[in-house]
Specification:
about 15% strand, alpha+beta, about 725 residues, elongated, 9-stranded mixed sheet, 7-stranded mixed sheet
Amino acid sequence: MTLRKKLAVTTLAASVAVSAFAGLPLSQQGLAEKIGFTRTASAAGDDFIDQAFMDKLAALRGKLSAADLTKIRQARALLKTKFLDPGANNNLELIRVPIAKIEAKAGADLSADEEKELYGFFAALVTVPYDVDGEHIEEIRNRPQLRAVLNKLVAAASGATQLTDLTVAHITGFISSVEEEGLKILQGKTLSELYAINNSREERNAVLQQVLSKVMAKDIPVTKLLKYYGIDETVTKDVILGFNAKLTTGERETVREGAVLIGLAYIELNKPAPGSGSGSGSGAGTTAPPVERPTQLANQAVDKIDDLQNAIANATGEAREALIEQAVAVAAAAINEIAVFDASGKAATQGGTTTVQLGMADLKSTIDALKRVVDELKAVAPEAAAELPELILTVKVDSATGNAAEVGLDAATIAAAAAAGIAGVKVELGTGFSAVLPLGGQIDGAVKLTVSTGAASQAGAASDAFEFGLTVNGQAVTTFDEPIEVSIPVKNAAGMDEQLLALAKLDEGRLRIVGGVVVNGKLVEKRTEFSKYVVVENKVTFKDIASVEAWAGRQIQVVAAKGAINGKAAGVFAPGDKVTRAEFAKMLIGALDLETSSATESFIDVKGTEWFAPYVAAAAKQGIITGRPERIFSPNATITRAEMAAMISRAVKVTAGAKDVADADAALKGFSDASSINASLKAGVALAAGKGLVIGNKGKFNPNGTATRAEAAVVIYRALTVK
């Protein structure tokens, strides 16, 4: 399809969406001139459609294939069945607002028959554009019952509007004005902007509001009458959109296809004669860009969620929750697909380094599509958006399989992504390495992530050696306010204990264990600093854990391997020693990768220079710890089992999205001493018990007993693998 033709069709399709009169080839010359209306006085003193119109429709049919005609007639039949057949009167609520306004102004109720007549008129107009056979134009004109209703409304308003009647010409003039204003707006837009309007319900609705505002400001008979009865552009828009909302996703596709086919036929029918110069530019013969996949996926998701809107609005209790879950599932599935951008085609490799630089031209449709899906879910059920995971935009560079890679995003893209609610950008290389850059904070401008790999020289290494670098606005950044999650592919690990694998920082030739867990063959760890790293098997042994070996031995070994809990001396774990609140905060924050250098604490008994201060600050920032009472942390006090359970529960809410149990008392009924749990800690203990993070002993939980180092190791071990 040529650019000129596709542009015209796009303009037509967009204006169709605006006015709900798809397919009519309207221009600023007006409806009547374009399709052959003539003003010929009839006996009733009204206008009617002459043979020229029927001839025009015959010519139009000549431009359509038999298959196209079948599709268009199917669209009209669908609309007729949906809105015009006798059984469609249950859709009367679609015009309930204008009816109420008319009745309020007129001071008298419309009869049921009069309401049905007005509904039938609105519904008929929706089907007119698909009437390639010319049947329905006359049907609308020859409606004596409708004429009586309109005359009644005109008579009641005559003193204010100076109207004596409302003719078909007046009605088609209103339609023409809608189209004229729509085309004035759309003709000044670029092809990309037109595609955006045509493929975004939100943008179509915005144009519709703008067009109707222009039309309602005109001093023409129909607008006079509408304004007299208080029917403004917002009410008019809602009526138009109400009909569209009654269509299912499949029905909309059928109607849209019919509209496009009619539009194409009209373009062919009115194509300028050769040599006229009209529409013949250098762009002729150039194909328009297809709708991008993110936009297509967003359109499909928005339509599916929109289909659930009325059902959700009218449902209660468990039925509503089930519908919301369905909407969330639709949104999540779409987001999973939309959020992955394959940048391999943008990569260039030179001298062993693969480089990718991305900007808004590359990622705008992806960012916009993600925002559209989330916004639609919020519109349908505001609380549902909280059920979605964080928005992470993934940039895949499968072609980056060498020893070095540089991936950059410009400042405009970072700003647009953050504004759209995207929490981070994940860079994923063909080597299996990935890093998630959290947006906001320090990452507020153009970024470039550099990754280089080399063979590891350390004994027991289970990965290559990786070195990372990051620049923001051209300035190197080595420490971060918010941690960056890295995933390093594990290799050559046959015979190694996967649970004992940990990320180690190469620090002046020495290894410093920093933690991490293996997920799907990759060691995942969050870092607040960049340097050179390698995955190693870290076996730590203690000679004093025999007494707890049966229930805590393995857990102590694994947590120690991650560097979360250190021994009190070489080979000494001291499993029975009590744990202070400060010690447990450090264990928990370190083991679960919850460090954040931007956190500050406000406890009056925690000084910023103390070893535990950053861990307490990180835990407080994320709601994992509270004071005893507020602003008093008591860092050196031993931690109770109930306090430990509450802290671990709050932590897994952050790391694993865990939710409080619906009935805390029911979750704790297995403990005979549940009544001894402090009320402020009960929900946390219930969640921990429900997730199997804590268990009792002989039917008791012993909530006020002091937690030991062995118990702390077990609880943290379980938290590392909680689902």
